[in-house]
Amino acid sequence: MTRIKRPLRRVIQTQKSLIQLREYLSQFGTIAFDLETTSPRGNGLDSDRFMIGYSVAVFDNEKWVGFYVPIRHDNPEGLFYEEADNAPLDIAIDVIKSLYGKTLIIQNIQFEYKTFFNEGIDRFQFKYEDTLAMAWLLDPSRDGGNGLKALVKKKVGYSMTEFSSFGKGDPRYTPIASMAPYAIDDVVQMGKLYHILEKEIDDVGLIKVYKDLYCEIVPYSTDMSINGIKVDIDRLKSLQTIWRQELDEIDQWFRDKLRLQEIRLESPKWLNQILIEQFKLWPILLDMDKGKSGQYSTASGNVKRWSEGERRTSAVGMECAKKILRNRGLNKLISAYCKTLVRSADINNYCHPRFSVFGTVTGRWNCVDPNLQTVPSRSDDGQLIRECFIADEGMVLIGADYSQIEYRLLAHFTQSKPLIEAYLNGEDLHKRTAAIIYDKHIDDVTDKERSSAKGVNFAIIYGQGPKALAQALKTDGDGAKRFLRKYFRLIPGVEGWMESYREACASRGYTQTLLGRRRYLPDLTSHKFKFRGAAERRAINTRVQGSAADITNLAIRNIQREINKGNLPCKILLMVHDEVVVTCLEQDAEYVAKRITEIMQSVVSLSIPLIVEAKIGN
Fold this sequence. Notes:
- It is a single chain.
- It contains 21 helices and 16 strands.
- By secondary structure, it is an alpha+beta fold.
- The chain starts with 14 loop residues before the first helix and ends with a strand.
């Protein structure tokens, strides 16, 4: 078979050269690909972004060869304005479509995937390799980050040009002569990087996790953003009005109680001067020192302690603290949810949050613009916000949530008999833990005792230090240590597992999740106790929380696979921590809820069953 010669020019600007490029690329199964984009705001990052050009590179004759296709470059308006020498748009788009069925190497699939959708290019027709996913799996907390420029410098030994060198203006006004070598360099270096990372990820045994999980879920996360979720704008505005009225009432309460005209509840300085110094309603708490500003901290943690009467806070002081906490809560509800959701909704009242599969070092997804992962779920106010997420007419929403997944993983990893028995018997883990520690029947455990046991379970999973545990238990440092010693003595297996796991992590230099994802922690062997202790807590936290992320990622993948096969008539809208939210026709709701529950509960096999609770609503 005769080889098709590569185009002579690296910047493709004519119909003839586009056809030549298309024929040349047809010989290759894997192509490094990168987009240069802009948007109406001119930053190239918004959901309505579009291409101004694209670059491709192939591995030909033992080296990467790249090309740039400008399609929407422009020149600033002016007396001597002339059109930029772009390639014919329709044919340039057709060249991309001619790559259907091929594998595209991309740094951060989500960016190109969303732009393909905006441009009417069928994003499902490609296979993908993501150098960002590879690099993140190899080291999620890499010094310098996992951006293309930093990776190429570290792995390839080459310093790339930063896009900022073109200035802060609209990218479409960057001259083609300047953009082309930059864009070509991007794909050529990306191809070199891909060869290096592919070998590294295979060497550490993560190639299957990368291929079978992350190459699937990253596109799915972008589809979730494209789908969006509908919000009730009128209800959000109504809640804002109601909560604004309550804020006014809180202000008036302080005016009446303190007989002051000027109320500045958001000002730490005002709270210090009025409530601590002038009226002495808030006593100085233990371990409370003045900061650099010369004021005591009025952070919510301290205000909560005053609200509970610590250091003999007076009844009026406690009420002031409760009002302050309520004031802060309402302001957050209004700014973070009411205003943000209304502002971010499109003309059809859909919000389109961006999900980042690589947004945290543990593997939990990150959600921004807007952040729906912080919507409170247990409070009455949080429930009111959640009720503002609605289904289309004739449709329902289904939220399927793993029950105590991290505590179940703690039981599985430690093989602690009391923890395993609690779950096998269907008991409340924290009540069972409290019953053992306080030596009483589980039915006699008080809420306070359950809360203390939960505090220790939580502290172990989330890597809290002694100070945070003491605050959770409402005791001092010595009291927290005594409780922890009692916990370890009466709940056998936990301390032993923690010690052996910390030692294993220190010897190899990293912690691992259930699927073998690594997080490197150099401070595990630090001579400084503070740094070593923090690293040891991160090791435990990543083992548990990262494994929970593995399970939810597998659940998303398996649910979407069933959808793709036509076996599950629904669409995934959100993943919020351990909860998957889908939408389906009302008549399919019971079947979809039952099937999703089955899928999520069977993604992995542990010593104890995974339990999923599915709820259906409009």
